[in-house]
Amino acid sequence: MRRLSSSAVVGLMAVGVACTLFVLACTKFDPSEEADSGTDAGSPIADGAAVIDGAVIDGAATDAAAAKLVFVLPKPLTAAMVATADGECAIHRPKATAWTSLATTGPLQRVNGNGPWKQPDGRIVFADRAALAAGTLLATINRDIDGKSAGGFVWTGATADGGASGTDCRAWTNPANSSVGTVGSLGSTGNEWAAARLQGCANSYPVICIESD
Fold this sequence. Notes:
single chain; alpha+beta; about 20% strand; globular; about 210 residues; 12 strands; Mannose-Binding Protein A, Chain A; three-stranded antiparallel β-sheet
């Protein structure tokens, strides 16, 4: 067998190193192997759960596609019109009712279903009925039926947990500032979304509409 000279051996080694470097440089990184799922790998999400605004919510009720709507009525109502606000909400969604008290009956009693409830822009507001009954919002209510931004006050005469506040412009019969009614503040996530303050009944505000099953 013919022996290679030392210079030939060195040449072959240099070629081998060059080929190795070429292969490494041309190897493509697959980003899917390192993709961040956005959740802690040590805390697997159970079947039927979803991540909403960074929180893991259990149950099939987090299916936003099946969620009912919660929206702000796109027109203001006088205090005298609030008694028939359910009909105003139903113009936009036949099974929607207003988050307003009717005498001693709170709005929660007029809402049927287990949720979830979402805004027209797709954001989940109430994960389920328990959240609705507790007045626990996952997102602020600030969109009308067309998805347009809404702000300011809304008539409620109610509390965040769906009861009657007892302050409702004399059962929505006195549209004068000699009476006051409870209003909510759009954009709030605390109890203020439904019960922020008292306003004179000569004012006009929209209402929040919540769709039932």
